[in-house]
Amino acid sequence: MQRLFTNIGWLLGGRGINAVLSIVYLALATRTLGLEMFGHFAAIVAVGLVVTGIANFQTWQFIVRWGANGANGTNGDGTAASEATGFAIALDLLSIAMGLVLAAVLVWSAPYWLPLPEDLLPLTFGYCVVSLLAIRTTPMGLLRLRFKYAAATAAETVQPVVRTLGAVLAWIYMPTVTGFILAYAVSELAVAVALWIAAARSERIDLSALSLTRIPARHKDAWRFVWSTNMSGSLTIAGKQITILLVGAFGGAALLGGFRVASQLGQALVALAQTISKAILPELVHAKEDALVIARRMANVALIGGILAVLFAVVFGRLGLDLIAGSEFRGRGFYWALVILSIAGAVELVGASLESLLVSAGRAGTAFLVRAAPTLLAFGLLDLAIGWNGALGAAFTVLGSSALAVIGFYVAILNLAEIRIEVDADKDAEAPPEPPRT
Fold this sequence. Notes:
The chain has one domain (about 1-420). It has helices at about 1-55, 60-70, 80-115, 120-135, 135-145, 150-155, 160-175, 175-200, 215-220, 220-250, 255-265, 270-285, 290-325, 335-360, 365-430. Helices cover about 85% and strands about 0% of the residues.
């Protein structure tokens, strides 16, 4: 537990720096571009995140899962980490190919459903290409496998620093949507390079091990785990961005821009939930016997943190919107949307350790199904919710989706615990009786 909290401390330190700097570049973008143009900017960023979220495989989980098992001696030949890395890099290349096709489809169809001017469509596709080239889950997996959280945090800090500097330059020299998108694109490439350098220093990267067949040959359930975690990760990452795009499709660029600001401020806890999930999964994989206890403790800590964060959003949310986004973002229910989204973030924070426990137990498919049903329900109700109460209605769909997913994780874990108890009971019944003691 001490190592877990130390790792979370490093990750949260990086998140803290990111949070402070994100306020700076968010304020520069919103005040420079205004409500509608910021909506265009937010739509381009969201399209890029949707493309990478759907196409990107959660390769860091594969490295932790199969690299850690090999480190514990299950393979016996010491090549597990190298093979897991080769498999992950091969999947990254597959992600880029899939992502390019998806990006082309989304950008080609954007004029029919997304409030984006046609002159911004080439920029949108270019940002998608950069986002795909900057996929970095594999180096993150290598650093987490070796518990190099300090190195990972230092490398990840490159992104907010470069993004903030780029936003300042855009504000001075190119105060347009293009200028701020270029700042975002450069920061994506910079952090990817920094993480690969950090990973290469901690683990030798053998490109000769690049293969899509070696790991599946050793682990029969490999592809099922790959697709399950990919779909689950797509729902978690891309699902939120699809919601933002649909808000724009149903409510226009101005509503999209305001909802994006409320989402970034109110759902900072979702990033915190993902941070805890990334820190806890390696611990659960390495300490399977104590996994349930670790997950329960982390859920309790997350509950306290979530309550405090929601109270902070209620008290300071309106002031934050005024200071960061300006008077143009006042009204339209954006403050209350921020509060509701912060509650959704708190719910996700509690559910992060529960979802990680399911994945570490080999139930990634269950985690995906539990996440998929409420997410699709939220998409179906979003148009009706926006028609009812604009940004506030959209926020309620996000909260409902998060709450149903976490309840589902809890029920699935209860069933998992019951299965383990029944298996242990069967083993005890089959075991031969102990000889009488003399």
